[in-house]
């Protein structure tokens, strides 16, 4: 199974540490709970990055790379959007129920969890548990972002 993430070159060495989740609250975790956010497809990873940029999106800076994370095949749980409470995908605030699900996942022995995307309805992101990656032979492949997607201004 593969998961994808768009990440800056300078953070590639620590991508499997889940550091952003250690420092901040996000949709599927609370501060202090390291987690790795990835997507089930390359295209969704690009949409997620562009949708979560703090400035108007005119393309990605050339310092961004596409990271393919190879996870062992196996059964991974999937959170279905219809099983989530109303407002779980609201902009500007994170729902406590999704954070509870993510924190429970991080505390578990699971490696990955599929969660619905708020950017592209019907598609799924992949949460990866950084506390479990050391138990597996996880491989990463790094690719340049297509220059047509780069902001070269």
Alpha carbon gap, first and last residue: 36 Å
- What portion of the residues fall into strands of 2 or more residues? 15-25%
| Number of strand segments | 7
Mean pLDDT: 90
What does the largest sheet look like? Answer: 4 strands, mixed
State the shape. Answer: globular
What helical percentage do the residues reach?
Answer: 10-25%
Number of domains: 1
Decide which structural class fits the backbone. alpha+beta
pLDDT under 50 segments (min length 5)? none
Can you put this structure into words, describing what you see?
The chain has 3 helices and 7 strands. It has one domain (2-147). The chain has helices spanning 19-23, 42-51, 96-107, and strands spanning 2-8, 36-39, 64-70, 77-78, 112-116, 124-128, 139-144. The radius of gyration is 15 Å and the shape is globular. The strands form 2 sheets. It has a 4-stranded mixed sheet with strand order 2-6-5-4. It has a 3-stranded antiparallel sheet with strand order 1-3-7. It is of the alpha+beta class and 153 residues long. Helices cover 18% and strands 24% of the residues. A hairpin with a 7-residue loop joins strand 5 (112-116) and strand 6.
């Amino acid at each position: 199974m593969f998961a994808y993430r768009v990440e800056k070159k300078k953070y590639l060495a620590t991508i499997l540490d889940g550091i952003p989740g250690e420092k901040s609250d996000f949709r599927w975790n609370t501060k202090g709970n390291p987690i790795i956010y990835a997507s089930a497809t390359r295209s969704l990873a690009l949409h997620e990055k562009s949708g979560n940029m703090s400035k108007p999106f005119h393309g990605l800076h050339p310092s961004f790379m596409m990271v393919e994370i190879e996870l062992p095949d196996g059964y991974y749980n999937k959170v279905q959007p219809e099983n989530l409470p109303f407002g779980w995908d609201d902009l500007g605030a994170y729902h406590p129920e999704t954070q509870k699900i993510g924190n429970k996942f991080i505390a578990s022995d699971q490696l990955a969890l599929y969660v619905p995307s708020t950017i592209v309805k019907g598609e799924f992101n992949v949460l990866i548990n950084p506390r479990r990656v050391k138990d597996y032979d996880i491989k990463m492949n790094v690719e340049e972002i297509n220059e047509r997607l780069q902001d070269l201004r």
